[in-house]
Write a structure and sequence with these properties.
Blueprint lengths: L2 E3 L2 E5 L4 H11 L2 H6 L9 H12 L6 E6 L4 E7 L6
Antiparallel strand pairs: 1-2, 2-3, 3-4
Helix pairs in contact: 1-3
């Protein structure tokens, strides 16, 4: 876990089918696509795996995370270095 505070949990995304299916569900949801990714750009499981697996394995500078409240996975966030000092 990265953060546990007041029932909110943020954890790194895992290289497993559960997390990929969760992202597929979100990345193909019409309401989500209105704000993230574009309405005409839904993701299937193959595209989710292709996009997020390199990040999960540390091959890219983006760290994908899932957040939960209290035990329900409710969203995705990512960390990345904006500017090095």
């Amino acid at each position: 876990m990265l953060i546990i505070k007041n029932e909110i949990t943020i954890r790194p995304m895992k290289d497993d089918i559960h997390d990929y299916q969760l992202m597929e569900k979100w990345r193909s949801d019409e309401k989500v696509l209105q704000f993230y990714g574009g309405r005409d750009n839904p993701y299937n499981l193959e595209k989710v795996t292709e996009t997020y697996q390199p990040r999960i394995k540390g091959e890219e500078a983006v760290i994908p995370c899932i957040f939960s409240y209290p035990n329900l996975e409710i969203g995705y966030l990512q960390q990345y270095l904006v500017h090095s000092l």
